[in-house]
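Action item from last week, closing it out:
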Amino acid sequence: MVQDNLIEKILLELVEIKQELSEAKNTIINLQKENKRLKEIINKDSSNSSKPPSTNNGFKDPKKSDSESAPKKKKKSRGGQTGSKGTNLKKVDSPNHIEILEINSCKNW
């Protein structure tokens, strides 16, 4: 009798363990599917999806190497260079033509 009760308890415990194992397997399968889906999302860029290049990580074209995508450095600084004279219009004392412009409409008024 004691032995029968012990066997029955063991069998019930075995059934519970099998159910837990089955649930754990289903959870693992679902997590693997989600992991695969998320990896596919992460690995998408402009070369293998309809995403624009500006959404790529690091804004780099995956086909170009670092040396190709880096901008070339210029030796001259921006703006007027030192020593250059520059040109612009000079005021004159007696202009040959004066044109008066009237404002017909304005955004702010």
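Closing note: Residues 1-26 form one domain.
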